Amino acid sequence: MNAVEPAPVVSLPRIPPGMLEGFARQELARGYLLSTPGDARDQVLIVDQGRLRVYLAGESRELSLSFLEPGDIYTTHTPTYLEAVVPTTVWLMETRRFARKLASDPAVTPVMMRVLGRLLVNAVNLIEDLAFREVPARLARFLTGLAERRGRPLDGGIWLVPLDLGTEDIASLLGSTRQTVSSLLNQWERDGILRRQGRRVLYIHTLDSLRRLGAEI
User: Fold this and answer.
1) Confidence band (pLDDT; 50, 70, 90) for 9?
2) Alpha-carbon distance 102 to 28, whole Å?
3) In this protein, which residues make up the domain named HTH crp-type (predicted)?
4) What is the dihedral of CA 127, 112, 15, 67, to 10 degrees?
5) Which H, E and C letters describe 159-204, residue by residue?
6) Number of neighbouring beta carbons within 10 Å of residue 103
């Protein structure tokens, strides 16, 4: 991990101009834990490049709450773990100092609300799925949502969906295991519902079938 250095004024996607003034830039290696529950550091971070996983952990199980992407804002002052799942660059500032910046720059507030809102929605959906749905329905809902947010419709009703997360990451988000998720994807591929191209591209042949699977309780 490289040393922390002063941040120049740059523009990130979805970040208001001038917002990074006063932040320090830090590079994180894959697997680096930026924050853990009870960590004495109290900082606000903005993701520049890469991806951070926000998760809870018990003695033998981890549960992912969200993945932070470039432009997202988060804080280490939470009872969660923050892990770089790929080489990642972040901008850091002490929370107290950021609070003063927030008070003087109203443009920051919508960015904060967007990320916190997404985390809240993810947490509520996760609780609902764990309480009322089996793993096949959870996975179907996840893939349907991914197609609707990031997918691109092709001819014949097929959807091309970029798959940025690995099978283990998806399993962690769904409160399942890599083996279970992989088995379901293989079964749906045999059933003609979807087709995988490598590890990063998914073709969904019948989105309505996934919606029906996701509606099962």
Assistant:
1) very low
2) 26
3) 133-208
4) -20
5) EEEECCCCHHHHHHHHCCCHHHHHHHHHHHHHCCCEEEECCCEEEE
6) 10
Global pTM reads: 0.68
Tokens encoding 63: 């549960």
What are 160's strand-pairing partners? 152, 203
Q: Are the C-beta atoms of 7 and 24 separated by less than 8 Å?
A: yes
pLDDT at 149: 83
Question: What is the 3 state secondary structure string of 82-133?
Answer: EEECCCEEEEEEEHHHHHHHHHHCCCHHHHHHHHHHHHHHHHHHHHHHHHHC
Delimit the domains of the chain by residue range: 24-130, 134-214
Domain 134-214 matching CATH 1.10.1740.10: the answer reads: no
Q: Which CATH architecture has domain 24-130?
A: Sandwich (2.60)
Token pair recorded at residue 201 = 């591209």
Q: Position 213: which residue type?
A: L
Residue pointed to by tokens 């903005």: 46
3-state secondary structure of 134: coil
Percent with pLDDT over 70 in the chain: 88
